[in-house]
Amino acid sequence: MARPMVIDEAEGTRFPFLRGILTRSLQTAGVPFEEAYAIASGVRQELDTTGDLTTDELRSRLVPRIERFGAEVVQRYLNPTSPAEILIHHSDGHESPFSRGRHRLSLVSCGIAPDAAATAAAFIYEDLVNRNVKILSSRDLRHLTHTHLLAHLGDEPARHYLVWQEFRRSKRPLVLVVGGAVGSGKSTIAAQIAHRMEIVRTQSTDMLREVMRMMMPQGLLPVLHTSTFKAWQTLPQRVAADEQIGEGADSALVNGYLTQAKLVSVACEAVIRRALRERVSLVLEGVHAHPGLIKSLGDDNDAIFVRVMLAVLKPRQLKARITGRGKREPDRRAKRYLNFFDEIWNLQSFMLSEADQLGVPIVANENVDDTVHQVMGILMAELADRFDGTPDEVF
Fold this sequence. Notes:
The protein is α/β, with parallel strands linked by helices and 395 residues long. It has 17 helices and 11 strands.
């Protein structure tokens, strides 16, 4: 299918519609990134049906979509002007222009809501412009930001910003481990957290298991070549029956899960140790991220380990999530998961019980935004236990 074209009748030019360019234009006008990207994606889908359009037609489609962000945003989109350049002088001697977008991301990184972060970044920029500031040290910018957050958002966001800045300066790696059963939303939440905290290294335990399957034939390790909720079916009878973890029919299910999780934990440990050697932060997510399997990795280094277990507490809701995931990703075959729903549900119960006993925070994932906010709060609380510098010490 040919890429839709945007026609500028005044200039007599034609150029391809680019979602990224439109997203950045909307951000420049003051629309938060997530909403800007969603709007640009919606327009792109419409153009697949309607075809080419003029710049005036594009504006007429966009204005109703961005009116909810305020008249000033609409005006900035319709009449963009070159922003006043403010140079930030960094401690290493180099200079860079102040960017509201980058500053917003730095605030989102410490747990401040995207809308509040965008408002704060815009306010700080306008304050600098109004005071005719042309160059500012990075230290003064951080002080200004902290003061603004304290005055307009309160003690907690200001404290989070201070803690985050001290953590960044420390160069200590952060390892976030997100566990949960099938359908609990691990991948979505992990990706959101990694984006907000600017963590570029993420790893799924499912992908590690897939690599291990290529290296170890099914005949050699059959427990590795099936789903966690069916792994018990591949265990020798004596393991499934004689080495039970608990009473009842679920003990074989748990044994199968733990057997597979322990195998995959070898690869998980390798990935984590590699990140620690390189001193980079990491988000590890997956059903195999059992909270008790990698608890000893932080004993001999200064890394900060944070564990979170996601939960879906209503069977109907978990079934709906599994069904929805199957529609979005047909290869994942939702019907197969639903046929084993009781096993998935019982496995989640075991995982949540283990997390509770080990003191791992459990977050009920009912809404993505709320869950991300809660996980960010857990992360910032962990960091706050380790960093307590004053603004003068940190900045």
